[in-house]
Amino acid sequence: MSRVLLVEDDPAVRRGVQLALRHQGHEVAAAATGEEGLEQLRSFQPDVVVLDLMLPGIPGLDVCRRIRERDQVPIIMVTARGDDIDVVVGLEAGADDYVVKPVQARVLDARIRAVLRRLQPSASDIARPRAESHGDLVIDRAGLLVSHRGEPVALAPSELRLLLTLSARPGQVLSRQQLLEAVWEHSYHGDIRLVDACVKRLRGKLGELSGDPRYIETVRGFGYRFRSS
Fold first, then answer.
1. What pLDDT, in 10s, does the model give residues 53-79?
2. How far lies 44's CA from each of 4, 114, 133, 174, 192, in Å?
3. CB 100 within 8 A of CB 15
4. In angstroms, how far is the first alpha carbon of the chain from the final one?
């Protein structure tokens, strides 16, 4: 059973989503404000956070940023419009995925289960050498640990799975759609903004300069390629 923290200010939506997730087998704690959500993050210690962007008090985007400053718990944000600029801003703030209102319980449940699977090593990860070096970057696939220049790198689940997917095929170009399906388990009609935002965050954590990427290279018109020394 996974522990889900739901942060949603609308009482009817909060109650409906809470009941639906409990019916799907999740343990759910609910918060009506950003402040309450941050408090419950410490006390409830959820496996995943479902976070509405439109909150009274501390806005959802600020809540997302504050969580990311101290925790790599998976965050699924809830937005009113799928084409809103808030989607991109929310992803860049550290969210792992998003769903659009009105929230469909089966879709949210699938996204929760998918994001939690990213925290587990795959069979192929376990079968590979425990640690592999790419210059200053060391990846422990079985332990799901990453270090850069000897320092541990804290990665959110999507960032970690993206790095594992790209680095497993050094020199090979993977399209955004291939990465979307491999990392987020989205269908062919998924949102490639998830990929671009995650690449941007990952590059920042690996200390890459935007004009001179050391590890993740953009192949214009195609996708991304991992560069290994």
1. 989 889 999 999 999 999 999 999 998
2. 9, 21, 37, 38, 32
3. no
4. 41
- Entry pTM: 0.90
Domain map of the chain by residue range? 3-117, 123-226
In this prediction, residues 84-108 reach a mean pLDDT of: 90
The region that residue 57 occupies, defined by phi over 0 for left and psi between -120 and 50 for alpha, beta otherwise, is left
What are the structure tokens assigned to 175, written together? Answer: 């399209």
Q: How many CB atoms lie under 10 A from the CB of residue 122?
A: 16
How crowded is residue 222: how many other Cβ atoms within 10 Å of its Cβ? 11
Q: Which two structure tokens, joined as six digits, stand for 150?
A: 């000897």
* Topology at the third CATH level for domain 3-117: Rossmann fold (3.40.50)
Report how far Cα 120 is from the mean position of its chain's Cα atoms: 14
Residue of higher predicted confidence among 38 and 142: 38
CATH class of 123-226: mainly alpha
What does the mean pLDDT of the chain come to?
Answer: 90
4 near 24, Cβ under 8 Å? no
Which distant-in-sequence residues (6+ apart) come within 8 Å of 52 by Cβ? Answer: 7, 8, 9, 10, 13, 60, 77, 78
Residue 105's Cβ-count burial label (10 Å; 0-12, 13-18, 19+) is middle
189 pLDDT more than 70: no
